[in-house]
Amino acid sequence: MSVRLQIFIGIIVFVFLATIANMVRKKKIDLRYSLRWMVVCVLILILDIFPQIIYFCAGLIGITLPSNMVFFVAILLLISVIYSLATSVSHLSEKVKRLTQEIALLKEELEGNSKEDKSA
Predict the structure, then answer these.
(1) How many alpha carbons fall within 13 Å on the CB side of residue 81?
(2) Are the C-beta atoms of 5 and 44 separated by less than 8 Å?
(3) Which of 1, 29, 32, 112 is the most buried (most CB within 10 A)?
(4) Is residue 61 left, alpha or beta, with left meaning phi > 0 and alpha meaning psi from -120 to 50?
């Protein structure tokens, strides 16, 4: 990998890190989600500074080309992000269902109280 490409990747990663930090500061993204992206950015920076790690890991696993190793790691990271987002969505949909049921019960109770007040 050329030094020019390493510098370019490093700049992109730092811009992305600054964007994430700014979004956290403005509370546009939750901290727990941003931490995952920050860890990914740090890993990319480490691999950008020390590209020999990719060659070593590819040889260790038995992958012939280091570029295939990069794709393999990227796919694993994407799967983990999708899994965490799916669990979050599932948890939030359960919360929405509970809140909807509670609101319906409270509405029914209020309507029942207002009918009792009118009849009395």
Answers:
(1) 14
(2) no
(3) 29
(4) alpha
What is the predicted pLDDT for the residue at 120? 60
Q: What is the mean pLDDT of the chain?
A: 89
Copy the structure tokens of residue 46: 């480490």
Q: Helix crossing, 31-49 with 52-61: angle to 10°?
A: 100
Burial of 79 (0-12, 13-18, 19+ CB in 10 A): exposed
How would you write the chain as a 3-class SS string? CCHHHHHHHHHHHHHHHHHHHHHHHCCCCCHHHHHHHHHHHHHHHHHHHCCHHHHHHHHHHCCCCHHHHHHHHHHHHHHHHHHHHHHHHHHHHHHHHHHHHHHHHHHHHHHHHHHHHHHC
pTM of the model: 0.68
Binned at pLDDT 50, 70 and 90, residue 46 comes out as: very high
Assigned token pair, 94? 């359960």
